[in-house]
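Entries read chain and fold; for instance:
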Amino acid sequence: MSSRPLYFCLLFMPFILQSQSIVQTARGKVFDKATQQPLAGALVSVSGAGPAAGAVTDENGRFTLEAVPVGRQAFRCQYLGYETYESEEVIVSSVKEVELEIALEKKVFTTQEVEVVPYAYASSPVNGLALVSARPFTAEETERIPAGVYDPGRMALSLPGVQQGSDENENKIIIRGNSSIGVLWRLEGIDIPNPNHFASPGSSGGGITIFSSQLLGRSDFLTGAFPAEYGNALSGVFDIRFRRGNTEEREHRARLSIIGLDIATEGPLRKGRSSYLVNYRYSTLGILNQLGFNLVGERVDNNFQDLSFNLAFNGKNKNTFFTVFGIAGDSEEHYLPVESPANRDPAVADHWEDRYNRSKMGAAGFTFTQLLNEKSYFKAVVAGASGVISRDYDTLSLDQVPFKYDLQRYQDGRISASATYYNELSSRAHLKTGLIFHQIHFDFFKETAPRRPSDVTIGQPARQISTLGNGNTQSAQAYANLNCRVNEKLELNVGVHGLLFTLNNSWSLEPRASFRYRPNGRQSISLAYGLHSKILPFTAFFYAPEGQGPSTAPPANPNKNLSLLKAHHLVLAYQYHFGRGVRAEAEVYWQRLFNVPVGIGDNSNYWMLNDQGRLLEFELVSEGKGLNYGVDLALEKRFSNNIFFLLTASLFDSRFEIDGYKRNTRFNSRFVSAYTLGREFVLKKNAILQAGLRLMANGGFRYSPYDPARSQAEGRFIPLKGREWSEQVDNYLRLDGRAAFRKDKDTYSYTVSLDIQNMTNRFNPHSVRYDATNNALQFRRHSGGLIPVLSFSLDL
């Protein structure tokens, strides 16, 4: 027998192996979405590969799917008595295993076959009780959105009804005309203080989130009529969940960009049982400034660093789970005066000011989950959190002598605990109840003095305390929700949420209700109502009347008895799934706000929800009202066949009422729209080219015209009485872009990306300022202009 065929096979074997596709392993867990019970015997496969290429889950609901081709893949899961699951396409890398958590929804009735719509699950929120105004998001989604900078707040600008706050450099968001004050952040089941760098007192946003997208698991973003378990929120909720690290293999990622360094590592602590996931970031905008791209300003130095982690443990049996999680961040921002006094314009205060801001925030805790039986579970979370914000503002005289005209300190520390109990009462009825408690310590003050004129030498006036608070307080929440599946088409939720704030013993009892009707597998009609309340920023309660010196505590706090902010939410929603990940959605909403703090006397035109967070310096009463109503439209294609898009448009009206007079709110821009799309091009040798665009087109924010005579006489801005917030700045337009190249090799993969914020270099106006020298209004514009972010990431 000739050995020639064998010889040729051996000769060409290296080339044959090189031409084979690179494959990867997908692991994960399949469980009941409601009861959290692991499901044994479920079949998981790559979509289109057929059952023979699938894997079956073990008694712990775990599965391992071998030889998954590198690239974009969708996964399918089938289990008797449950709805079929099909994911959107996710990235399968050559060096990072795919970790999937598949939550299956039980079929209550099996007499009628329901059409399976591919990718419909990808649009369903993690919280199955959220029937309206809720959308899930993933880490990969925050990365592929142009100029999203891996930040949930910036990613949300692509969603219906959401628009940029008053500064492009920040991730504060306006939802359906509501101030960003009303946004709640929840991490791993516990409410936390503002988790953003460059934060300001009382705000919910900042420059960028403290936790990296490397830790993000599948999370939810909600914009109205929240389920009963969410309290202390008025406009929106970020319900953040961290993913678990790989329990079998160690994996690492490093990302280097012109704004900093991002390093993540994960792997098993005990193989198959426990894991770690840790991320560290350090960032500075100094490189951008050196290149001539001033994100904040040409005389601004800023940097931040943060650390995030999630440790996951399985108990000795399959029914117990623990996690230990944490985030910590430190950021500072230094606004410098014009270096040479000769070049400083006496009419421009910014030329003479030396301002330093610093914010620190940290939170750490643990979760404990116990599956009690096949129909119920208990979950507890205990965490500690703290936020510290400081501001030091100096103005300089001609002889370079500094005078501190504004000094602020803010500290908020808390110990928090929550408990959740879930019980499947029957195949049709499910009960979810819970408690949330916060023990809070606060300490803050604000000392101010008039700015000293820069062109004269005068004595330094004493600073006056305008805000002073120190003490302890508590907040407690309780909720219950009954979910009923009436039949194959109709689902109902009835619930109640209670909130108690002990600082002034204010409380709220809030009914919640929703239903969803599905005439078939492609359509749904939903209606939801809720009464919602929000504790005011602590600084609002501790205004110190005029005349209190730096060492004198005020005898009383006239704002201490301000009520909880409240609003009725009503939402009607319709969804239609066309198939292959394409869906259309329309939501009509109505929100009636009341108990909104408003000013009195000279500040009688002040309405708190025109603000986005600051230390208040005058007396307030809870007598304001407001009304928001509108329609949100969306057409979305989840990532499949190398393309995705999200086209959104919102028309709305947002007004407030004081003393019977209705006025536009500051954020009544009348329309909001965002058009986001992306495309991937599959190249040879396991390479992918990505391209994406996002266009945001919104109406302009409102401003008040000024009274020329009174403003000139008093040397400060005086609004024209009766015309407050009647004028509007020009429309907001911004085009963002993204291009990326991804390459998978046998032992590593890398991505080179370029995100460009504001590709047309348009300086959008967002508000006005009063120029006392010329007795005129000047438009204030977003400062960034065109901002490129070039980055390189390496996976090992």
Summary: Residues 219-795 form a domain with the Maltoporin; Chain A fold (CATH 2.40.170.20). The chain has two domains: 18-107, 219-795. Confidence is low (pLDDT under 50) at residues 1-19, 454-459. The radius of gyration is 28 Å.
